[in-house]
Specification:
Chain A: It holds the Pfam family TctC. The complex is a heterodimer. By secondary structure, chain A is α/β, with parallel strands linked by helices. Helices cover 45% and strands 18% of the residues of chain A. Chain B has helices spanning 2-15, 17-35, 41-52, 57-82, 93-140, 144-159, 166-179, 198-201, 206-227, 244-266, 272-286, 298-321, 328-339, 348-351, 353-381, 389-406, 411-429, 435-457, 464-467, 469-493, and strands at residues 183-184, 191-192. Classes of the chains: A alpha/beta, B mainly alpha.
């Protein structure tokens, strides 16, 4: 008798529990996400994309109540990871991390995912282009650099991060902005390009500020100018290009995207969660002490920013013969 | 001052048993992750990285360094026992390690690897502590022309040391060079030989190639032997401690390997695959007498293992002197420092000498702990050799598949692995050695990129190679190595 009662109780309770999700189905559907979210970083662990991505993932998982797992899928100038994220199921459970490389690769590589086919979610970080020289070159200002480049173009050898990389495009755009040309030598990424100026194989580099702080602090290298709206917080003594008399603003960025076709309510939830994660004071404190310039913007702002980037980058790629697909 | 901080970091461990336990756990984890094919040291670090965000910076660095150092050794375990490299740094360890295991000397091979790793690790840290600024300075003299010639030197050394028919070895090396041309051209960004496939744009990754060309080839060779009723018997394991006489013969290789590893580690972005390839090539060329490289020569295990462990210390040199990563592993360490608001680079000696001391101390402790944990671990892990041969083959095939997939969760890498596995088997059937192919694949792109950059920088003039002292020296060595056999031949006839 007693055991029958218990059995009924168990049965009843189990059924109620099972029925629960059905009864509250609409409510549960709003409970997106109900499983871990994957964040695909198209660059190796330890770099800016990875570090910003992991920081955002940490705070985003607190916002969403679900783990956000970072997965590094490097290769082919960032196109491998972006392609995988773009091709993922559009259910909101896959977020990709992108930077300027996606805009450049759109035109340089037929196998790359065009940036227009991605759904921008939010831009997180923006880092301005910069130009640095070896201190022993004697060049102490952007104006002095321009004078040198104009009087003796062969004296300037710049190291960059290879065709389509941010430092490479920066060097092309800087040449336009200062109205003269100089030689720029490709290396495989930021680290060898920085090593090249450190060793003296080159005497200038367009690798951005964050990577130059170490050498700048030790006095080996001088950061001449940064291409931001304001000065770089890690190099407060370095003027902007505009301050130096050459109006030029160009920024790399770390942004998040989803595949196209994710249901609107989920994208909205993700966007809101990302924006409040990156507004968390703890997040901001960590990111700032690590030297990242957090300048978040949501879907609309990011899309508009991407268009501005596209307008800045396309002409210079075309001039340099790097546009091989998606001609405008 | 710095030395105090170094000693202090040991004191911290002694005072906090919980820290010591964490360190031992991290070392054990590193050995296992390193031993798993496809999970490289870099990946082992990436797995641990998010866990360290919430830790104090010193503890975070300590744990990361423990995993890094131990995973480098872990990579040699699968290389020796299974003929699959656990990490890129172990790709040449198996050339002689696996034959040793097949001859019933798995224990000795692992013992040699562990001892050489420990010696290399300790020497690498000592070099880092004592002469980092000097090495950093000479590494700075190592620019594009030197790199191009170093790669050429490696290829030349190899061509003259291939077993059996030299032409077959050269052919294999040339095939490797050709595969090295696939993918984005580093100078112009043009995709080469990609046949419109996105997979090939990134080039042919060395890891799936080595997994396939050694692991799968081994499985196929064993299976075809078993069809003819000649299934090799299960090899014995033997003792872990190599015979004293052999150690007396091998120890110079530790020093040569450690020197190569430290120097190449100090060159930013060179990487462990290049260091071990050069260490092995040097070893083959400069050891005389009874050496039987490729057939179970202990020096072929000791030199690359000393090199890849010394490289860890060497790779810290650009990190502490310039603030730039020496390889993909130290890139993660830089990320970990930056997230804690610490800027790696020369100013760290002034601003955070305690952190430098922690790095040095952790590296040293990690090397010693790896040895201690390794000794315990190896006794258990060598038991895998007791499995029946066919079971072993199933295990190897499985690990090849998982390992190739694990690199970046991509079936493309599995296809590359299988393709090279089949190719390796066919090459073995017609007696073309496969090792030179791997060297061609590693050294070819290095040579091409740096040769072209040199010529851009020198505006097309080749004289730069003889004008720079280091490159002129390497060039002279290359010519000497090429002339030696001709002179020897001529003298024998005379």
């Amino acid at each position: 008798m007693k055991s029958t009662l218990r059995r009924h109780l168990i049965l009843g309770l189990t059924t109620t529990l099972l029925a629960g999700p059905l009864a509250f189905a609409p409510a549960v559907a709003q409970q997106f996400p109900d499983k871990p979210i994957t964040m695909i970083v198209a660059w190796p662990a330890g770099g800016a994309h990875d570090t910003v991505g992991r920081l955002v993932a940490e705070y985003l998982s607190k916002e969403l109540g679900q783990p956000v797992v970072v997965n590094n899928l490097p290769g082919a100038a960032g196109t491998t990871g972006v392609r995988q994220a773009a091709a993922a199921e559009p259910d909101g459970y896959t977020i990709g991390v992108m930077g300027l490389h996606v805009v450049a690769q759109t035109y340089m590589n037929a196998s790359a995912t065009p940036f227009a086919t991605l759904a921008p979610l939010a831009v997180i970080e923006r880092s301005p282009a910069a130009i640095s020289v070896r201190t022993d070159s004697g060049i102490d200002s952007l104006q002095a650099f321009v004078n040198k480049a104009k009087s003796d173009a062969a004296a300037i050898i710049n190291s960059d991060d290879g065709p389509g990389g941010f430092a490479n495009i920066s060097s092309l755009l800087i040449q336009k902005a200062i109205g003269t040309t100089f030689a720029t030598i490709p290396y495989q990424g930021y680290a060898p390009a920085v090593a090249a100026i450190a060793s003296g194989e080159t005497n200038t580099t367009t690798v951005p500020t964050a990577q130059m702080i170490g050498l700048s602090n030790s006095g080996d290298v001088r950061i001449l100018a940064v291409a931001g709206d304001v000065r770089h917080p890690r190099a407060p003594d370095t003027p902007t290009f505009t301050e130096s008399g050459f109006p030029f603003v160009f920024q790399d960025f770390v942004g998040l995207f989803t595949p196209q076709g994710v249901p609107e309510d989920r994208v909205a939830r993700l966007e809101q969660a990302v924006l409040s994660a990156v507004a968390n004071p703890e997040f901001l404190a960590t990111a700032q002490s690590a030297g990242f310039i957090i300048a978040p913007d949501g879907r609309e702002g990011f899309a508009a920013f991407l268009d501005r980037q596209d307008n800045a980058v396309y002409p210079i790629l075309e001039e340099s013969g790097l546009v091989i697909v998606n001609q405008k | 001052m710095l030395f105090d901080a170094f000693l202090d970091s040991f004191g911290i461990f002694a005072q906090q048993p919980i820290l010591m336990l964490m360190a031992i756990a991290a070392v054990a984890m590193g050995i296992v992750l390193g031993a798993l094919p496809g999970v490289s040291s870099t990946m082992a670090l990436a797995i641990l990285l998010p866990l360290t965000f919430g830790m104090a910076p010193g503890v975070a660095m300590m744990l990361l360094l423990m995993v890094l150092v131990s995973s480098v050794f872990g990579g040699s375990i699968s290389a020796i026992l299974l003929n699959i490299p656990g990490t890129p740094g172990a790709i040449v360890t198996q050339f002689d390690g696996y034959p040793m295991a097949q001859q019933g000397r798995a224990g000795h091979a692992l013992g040699h690897a562990l001892i050489a790793s420990t010696v290399g690790g300790v020497l690498g840290v000592i070099a880092l502590m004592m002469i980092a600024p000097v090495i950093a300075k000479s590494a700075m003299e190592f620019r594009s022309p030197e790199f191009a010639l170093l790669a050429l030197f490696g290829l030349v050394l190899l061509a003259y040391t291939v077993e059996g028919a030299m032409l077959a070895g050269l052919l294999s090396g040339a095939i490797g060079l050709m595969f090295g041309m696939v993918g984005f051209d580093t100078m112009s960004g043009v995709a080469r030989f990609d046949f419109g496939s996105a997979i090939l744009q990134n080039g042919i990754d060395i890891i799936p190639v080595t997994i396939g060309i050694f692991g799968i080839t081994e499985v196929l060779t064993t299976l075809s032997a078993s069809r003819h009723g000649a299934l090799p018997s299960v090899p014995k394991i033997g003792s872990l401690i190599p015979p004293r006489l052999e150690i007396a013969r091998v120890w110079p290789s530790w020093l040569r390997g450690s020197t190569t590893g430290t120097l190449i580690g100090a060159i930013p972005a060179a990487g462990s695959a290049i260091a071990v390839a050069v260490a092995y090539a040097l070893e083959r060329r400069f050891t005389r007498g009874e050496a039987r490289f490729g057939k179970g020569e202990p020096r072929g295990v000791a030199a690359p293992e000393a090199a890849n462990s010394a490289l860890t210390g060497g790779a810290m040199i650009p990190l502490v002197t310039l603030g730039i990563p020496g390889d993909s592993m130290s890139a993660i360490l830089i990320g970990a420092l930056i997230i804690h608001g610490l800027q790696p680079g020369p100013m760290m000696f002034v601003e955070h000498p305690d952190m430098i001391g922690t790095i040095y101390g952790s590296l040293m402790l990690a090397t010693l702990l790896t040895f201690a944990v390794g000794v315990v671990f190896l006794r258990v892990i060598v038991q895998v050799m007791k499995l029946p041969t066919l079971v072993m083959m199933v295990l190897i095939s499985l690990l090849c598949m998982v390992g190739a997939f694990a690199i970046r969760n991509s079936l493309a890498d599995v296809s590359v692995m299988l393709l090279f596995g089949g190719m390796g088997y066919l090459m073995t059937l017609i007696r073309i050695p496969v090792a030179p192919l791997v060297f061609g694949l590693i050294l070819g792109p290095l040579m091409e990129e740096n040769l072209r950059r040199t010529l851009i920088l020198s505006r097309g003039s080749w004289s730069v190679f003889v004008e720079r002292p280091i490159s002129a020296t390497i060039l002279a060595l290359i010519i000497m190595v090429m002339l030696l056999p001709i002179i020897a031949h001529w003298r024998r006839r005379a």
